[in-house]
Amino acid sequence: MSALKETLSQATKAAMKARDKERVATLRMVNAELKRIEIDERRDLSDDDVFAVLNKMLKQRKDAMAQFRDANREDLAAVEAYEIGVIEAFLPAQMDGDELADFVAALVTKSGAQGMQDMGKVMGLLKSEGQGRVDMGTASALVKTQLANL
Question: Which helix (H) or strand (E) holds 64?
């Protein structure tokens, strides 16, 4: 069992003991998704796999929250915001704007990219080296900008 998965399990138990219903529900949802993937793929998940699942769930929650806000459903947006907070607690800290720009610039140099045709190379490096610490949408825009300026 991966260390992150064990941490999630322990957090679920602690939330149950504290009778924090909302946190328990969110953590159970995360654990259920991890279990579903393990069963479907018939393998144990590594920490990188768990990070990928958490990032996917985080993106889904952010998209849902934006849609709820657009529909003036602040009650449902608040639920999504709470779930985002719980999930983010198990992810490494996200890079801020300047740090992300420097990281992307270093990856562009490292990959030897010559222009937009090499975006796939840079994005591959970004995905492997920035796992969990990078918002891929923001990073993709930075990569496009930097490759366009080459």
Answer: helix 47-70
The class (CATH top level) of 97-148 is mainly alpha
Backbone torsions φ then ψ of 22, nearest 5 degrees: -65, -45
pLDDT tens readout for residues 102-121: 888 888 888 888 888 888 88
Q: What is the pLDDT of residues 69-105, one digit of tens each?
A: 999 999 999 999 999 999 999 988 888 888 888 888 8
Q: Report how far residue 52's alpha carbon sits from residue 132's, in angstroms, rounded to the nearest whole number.
A: 7
- Structural class in CATH, domain 3-88: mainly alpha
Verdict on whether the full-model pTM lies above 0.85: no
* Domain boundaries defined on the chain: 3-88, 97-148
Contact 106, 95 (CB under 8 A): no
**Tell me, what's the pLDDT at 101?**
86
